[in-house]
Amino acid sequence: MIAPKFLPFLFKQIVRHRTRSLLTLGGTAVAMFLFGAVQAVQQGMRQATELSAKDTVLVVYRENRFCPYTSRLPEHYTQRIERIAGVESVVPMKVLVNNCRTSLDVVTFRGVPPEHLEKFLAGQIQLIGGSVQDWSRRQDSILVGETLAKRRGLKLGDMFEANGLRVYVAGILHSDEPQNQNVGYVHLRYLQYSQQKETGIVTQFTVRVKDPALLDSVASAIDAEFKSDQEPTTTRPEKAFVARAAGDLLELIRFTKWVALACVAAVLALVGNTIVLAVQDRVREHAVMQTLGFRTGLIARLIVAEGLLLSVSGGAVGIALVVALLKWGNFSLSNEGLSINFSAGPQVWLIALGVSVLVGILAGLVPAWQASRREIAASFRAV
């Protein structure tokens, strides 16, 4: 766009009006901070709810029930589900949460049989501390998701109490699956016994099918199997289950795209206003530059580059603050024991930086065009 030798000139132009430039950078940083935060929430929503061609997990829940407290299914359904064609494995699971409503700090316990855990989580987790063997040996132990561990400051060997349950941290796990990042896996029998000795009762069944193409047919077969039973079921793919549970929340998150657009408009207005004022202040200066041999096209590019520099600098500060805040806070929105994690990955900050570049260029186009068309004599007469 412009030669590197002109960069010192651009910096001097910005520094000459420190107050105006700092206010513009600050306003741009705040707007891009909000834009980045919105993008992080929306990215987390997509990761938690959008089905992919590799998804093979179904969730079997009690029909017409939503909160884990109200979904009660007999554990002996396990054998009947295993006999259905296309089912690879079935894990009975009891879920305990401290809050069924939408919250930023929900602790979710998932009780699973020890003999099923390794097979159930195979390929989904990586232990960053402790071991499954340590977890298996102690009935009151827990494997904690990395996000939950960071948020609660948990370390290996800690005793952790929540939801009326006191557990020993035997391992901390890392997973790319959103629903494994914010939960703790405990022994099914221990969790059942702690809840008024409800042995034989679970909240749901997590079913893995042999082929992703079988998701719908296996789900229909499971619901047909228990249609006439005392406890009928509703079966959905795991991510569709999350989307249904967080339906109202997802509508609210989708609305935030308008907040993101408002942030972009604010950045455009801030940078555009700064560049317009700067060009008006430099009318005679531009005339001198033309007299010295600067072409109008070069002057226009310098003006656009100044807007780009202001926008990208402020945007970079705002994005860095978002990434730092989300990394420090480990925030997630939970509803009915299911989580939507705020994800500030490379895709989020690349989009934000791209928007900063585009807005910076757009903000400088009109002032650059006006400056390039102004005659030298008229510029010298300007007050």
What is the alpha-carbon Rg in Å? Answer: 29 Å
Mean pLDDT figure: 81
Helix content: 55-70%
Give me the count of strands.
Answer: 14
Low-confidence stretches: none
- In whole angstroms, how far apart are the ends? 31 Å
- Written as H for each helix and E for each strand, in order along the chain, the element string is HHEEHEEHEHEHEEHEHEEHEHHHHEEHH
Give the overall form: elongated
**By helix and strand content, what is the structural category?**
alpha+beta
Beta-strand share of residues = 15-25%
- Largest sheet properties: 10 strands, mixed
- How many H/I helices? 15
Report on this model:
The chain is α+β, with helices and mostly antiparallel strands. 55% of the residues lie in helices and 20% in strands. The chain is built from 15 helices and 14 strands. The strands form three sheets. Strands 1, 3, 4, 5, 6, 7, 8, 9, 11 and 12 form a ten-stranded mixed β-sheet that branches. A two-stranded antiparallel ribbon has the order 2-10. The longest helix is centred in the C-terminal third of the chain and has 35 residues. It is elongated, with a radius of gyration of 29 Å. The two termini are 31 Å apart. 42% of the residues are buried.
Question: How is this fold's topology laid out?
Answer:
Layout: H1 7-16, H2 18-49, E1 57-62, E2 73-74, H3 77-82, E3 87-97, E4 108-112, H4 114-121, E5 125-130, H5 132-137, E6 141-145, H6 146-152, E7 159-162, E8 165-175, H7 178-181, E9 183-187, H8 188-194, E10 201-202, E11 204-209, H9 215-225, E12 233-237, H10 238-245, H11 247-281, H12 283-291, H13 296-329, E13 332-335, E14 338-341, H14 346-373, H15 376-381
